[in-house]
Amino acid sequence: MAKARGPSPLPDMDAMMDLVQAFEALAAKDARLADARLDEVIRLVPGKRAILSGRVGERPAIFRFYIEHAEAYAQRDWAELQRTERYMSEGDFRVNAPIVHVPELGLVVVERVRGQPLMDLIRETEKHRAEFLPPAAQWLRKYTAPSEELTGVRLDGWYRRIERGMARQRNATLRRAEQSVLTELHRIAAPHRTGQWRIAISHGDFHPNNLLADGQRLTGIDTGGSAKLPIYKDMARFLSHMARRGLIPSGEERFGVDARGFDAFTQAFDLDEVERTIWLPFMLGVEVLIRIEPKDLPAKRVRKAEAFYGTLLDGLRDIRP
Length: 321
Fold this sequence. Notes:
Oligomer: single chain
Helix content: 40-55%
CATH superfamily of the largest domain: Aminoglycoside phosphotransferase (APH), C-terminal lobe
């Protein structure tokens, strides 16, 4: 029986244990799981998914149980892993290998790779921390390249997501800053609404904790949210994730995020002038407005978020579209 690591809300833990029991019952009679065993709970996202460690034979593995839309989400995750494994199973930029898919349990099992989350590595490194940023941009470039295409700009869906996100903001100071950011997004995007931008199958939750570093190798994990998006969205997610936490590895800022990181994505994707000066800053603004800080966020984190919002806003106001 898998062991829980850390506290979780009781109803969600009960639901997860039901999944574990169903897994063990199926493993006793199904060849797909004959050599599989669970060890401990790594993470439980209430109502959405449970992540456990374990083994398949002697192979260390991660077991992802989807709770919400279990079969459909597991199928999407599995299909994306199979797609990307074809071109990201060798070299320095990889994804973790798919092992087994059990649709009726909403389960995807993947290889558990060695490595340290890039976020931790950046925090722990005293000098030359910005050197980790170009490889991260190159990992993303390898991931998106095969599916990249040019298409017409579509902004309405993003503005709807922004509206929903802003409606949930509970911090009054951040709410005022967000309204100013939205005003600037409309201003810089308006002249380019009938233009084009690049889209690709993107990671969907690309931040430094979802890259594991082992020497020169970077392995991307948690690709289950992959979808076709403007390529700038994952760049913005990565950069803003650090900035919200006050982490600027190079010590230089642009639009509130790390300037060298901004340049690393610009170079890895060979962004043209409109992509670099309009769409990447636009998506940084989107990240601010759709990703709501929790109500119980510590005051120190709120102050860091306020500083990020303010510097981003200054950068957006300087844009002449």
